[in-house]
Each structure stands twice: as C-alpha cells, then as structure tokens.
Specification:
Strand 1 and strand 2 form a beta hairpin. The chain has 2 domains: 104 residues; 201 residues, Beta-Lactamase, CATH 3.30.450. The protein contains 8 helices and 6 strands. By secondary structure, it is of the alpha+beta class. Helices cover 65% and strands 11% of the residues.
C-alpha cells in the first residue's frame, strides 16, 4: 500500500470512529436531558427539547466536530507511524551498512569508506577512525613482515661470507636488487686501529660507473660518507651534489639520482663501515627503517669477520713461531751433539798422543840402558 493510501486510510478511520463517538455522545446527552426533565423516550419529546432549548441544535454539530478531530487524530497517528517506520528503516539500513562495512574489513578490503544513511558525522568519524586505524595496523604488520623477511634473508646471506671483500660485494648487490627503486650502492669498511689512522674505504659497489669515481676513500668527517660515520646517524639527501656520479644505462642514459641515503654500520657504538644507496625517487619510511635494522646486523658481521681474520692471523703467526722455535730447538740439539762429539774426539786424540809419547820415551830409555850395559 502506498503512503498516500495509508494516509487517507488513517484519516478516514479516525474521522469515522470519531463521528460515531460524537453521535453516541449526542444521543447520550439527549437521553440524559430527557431523564432530567422526567420525559419518556420518544421522538416528540426530543422535538420538545429542541424547541424548548435551542442550544441542542448546536449539539448536532458534535458528530461533525468529532469527525474532523478524528481526521486530524488519524493524520497525527499516521505521521507518528511514519516516523516510527522511518526510524526502524533507518536503524535497519544503518545496521546493514555497518554489517557490510565490517564484512569488507573482514575481507581485508580497507579501501571501502563508510557513509552513514543521513550523514551522521559521529558515526562516520568513528567508522572512518576504525578503518584508518586498521589500515595503519595492517601497514605496520606488513612492514614488520617485510623487515623480518629481508632481515632473515640478510642473516642467511651474511653467514656464507668469511672475508670482507666477498661480504661487501654480496651485501651491496643484495640490497640494490631487493629494495624497490634503488639503483646505486656502495659499501665502505673502516680500516685502521688507531683513531688517527682510521679511513673509510670503498670495498664494493653496484651499478656505479667506475670511471667516474671521485672518492673511494674518506676520513672521518670528510664528505657525506665521513660525516655520517662521525655523526653515527643517517644522512638523507634529496639535493644531490652536482659532482655526484651518474648512472650510465642503455635504457635511462646518464641520469643523476634524486635521493641519497648514507647509513653508518654501528655495533656497540663502534662504526665498522658505511652503506651508500641512491634512488631515482624518495626513500620510503619502510626502506629507511629496514636499512637501520640491517645496519647493526651487518656491523656485527663485519666485526665477527675481522675478529675471525685476526684470530686466524694470530694462529698462523703462532704456528710460524712454533715452527721456528722447533727448528731452533733442533739446531741447538744438533749443535750440542756436535759439540759433545768434538769433545770426545779431542779427548780420544789427546789420550792417543800421550800413549805414543810414553812408548817413545820408554823406547829411548831401553836403548840408553843397553848402551850402558844394564839389562
């Protein structure tokens, strides 16, 4: 049934019921008036009342007035019913929209915004705030998963290196290939034990034009690389120096990067190296966060490789010293044996000489005694 038909029905029903009620009231008044005048119930007596009291003619308007009042009452009831229906419909529609919105959220479709039925700002703001919060939480979760994944891959990669050279080449190649938009990379390692001897030397690069290297070695605080090392903090530049090297490619020609990120590799407050990355677009917060996460892992690996290399060098030197000591010991033993042998030979030679001399003296004595006639 249409709204107009329902409206007419409410009005007519109200008018009809009210008219009946008015007519009943009129009859009740007339009967009560007859009783009060002690007149029997009859048409003639009703006529007498009207002739005696003219006000009763006005009472004939009572059914009409009640019918009009009933029509307005029906209209009011219709309006109230419509408001109730509209409110119920509004709540049902709002609940359906909320359910649809929540189902989209369950499907991880966070791009669908919520629009209320009648533009209720509080409801829209609450739902939008929830959606934005879920998007932020989802983004953080995705970033954390991405960081964990790349960190895990980097750890596995780092375990395969036992020297600084292969580590440098492997890590810078991995980062440039894995990070979206990165087109250039350089890996620097701090060399030297004493502070005044320390230098930051480039060990590997990827996608650089080697013929255009301006600096492959820096002191602390020298250039952007040395500045990052001495400040122990990232340097993010979108204004690239004019003398910065460009990329030569058959696809992109000679182009200067538009964004530069230089990150020191720090572990236990010691700078072990620096990573330099360049991109044709701005570095995302995720990329910066990821590089910061990886920098300490790489720094610890460099420290471990250096310690291992130093330990192996000490072991090799120790083995060499041990071999030299063993050789010297053998030489001393040989010399001692040669000395003892020489002493024995000298002793034997001396004893033989004394015996010969004694025999010679005895022979001379016998000869002299024979000459003197002594037996």
């Amino acid at each position: 049934m249409s709204d107009n038909k329902r409206k007419i029905k409410f009005i007519l029903t109200g008018a009809l019921l009210s008219a009946v009620a008015g007519l009943a009231a009129l009859l009740f008044i007339l009967i009560f008036s007859l009783k009060s005048a002690s007149l029997p119930f009859s048409g003639a007596n009703f006529s007498t009342l009207y002739k005696t009291h003219g006000i009763y003619y006005l009472l004939n308007l009572l059914p009409l007035l009640t019918a009009i009042a009933g029509g307005y009452l029906g209209l009011w009831l219709f309006s109230r019913d419509e408001k109730a229906k509209n409110k119920i419909s509004y709540y049902q529609t709002t609940i359906r929209k909320i359910i649809d919105f929540v189902r989209q959220i369950e499907k991880n479709n966070l791009n669908v915004s919520f629009t209320s039925v009648n533009g209720e700002k509080e409801l829209e703001e609450a739902m939008e705030s929830m959606r934005v919060g879920l998007i932020a939480a989802d983004q953080r979760e995705n970033e954390r998963n991405e960081i964990n994944r790349l960190t895990s891959e980097t750890n596995i990669l780092l375990q395969s290196y036992s020297d600084i050279h292969t580590l440098s080449e492997g890590i810078i190649t991995f980062l440039v290939k894995k990070l979206d938009g990165i087109v250039q990379g350089a890996f620097y390692v701090v060399e030297g034990e004493e502070e005044h001897e320390k230098t930051i030397r480039m060990k590997a690069s990827y996608a650089y034009n080697r013929k255009k290297y301006m600096h492959a070695e820096f002191r602390f605080a020298q250039g952007l690389v040395g500045q990052a090392a001495v400040e122990k903090d990232n340097i993010l530049r979108t204004e690239i120096p004019d003398d910065y090297m460009t990329i030569t490619s058959g696809l992109i020609g000679d182009r200067k990067p538009t964004s530069l990120l230089i990150t020191p590799l720090i572990s236990n407050d010691i700078v072990y190296g620096v990573i330099e990355l360049a991109s044709f677009r701005k570095f995302s917060p995720l990329q910066i966060h990821l590089i910061n996460e990886l920098s300490e892992v790489i720094a610890r690996t460099i420290a471990k490789v250096k310690i291992t290399h130093r330990t192996l060098a000490l072991l090799e030197e120790s083995e060499k010293m041990r071999a030299e000591l063993s050789f010297q010991k053998k030489q001393l033993i040989q010399n001692a044996e040669d000395l003892i042998k020489t002493q024995e030979e000298l002793k034997e030679s001396k004893n033989n000489g004394i015996l010969e001399k004694f025999l010679e003296m005895k022979g001379g004595f016998n000869e002299k005694a024979a000459q003197n006639g002594i037996d």
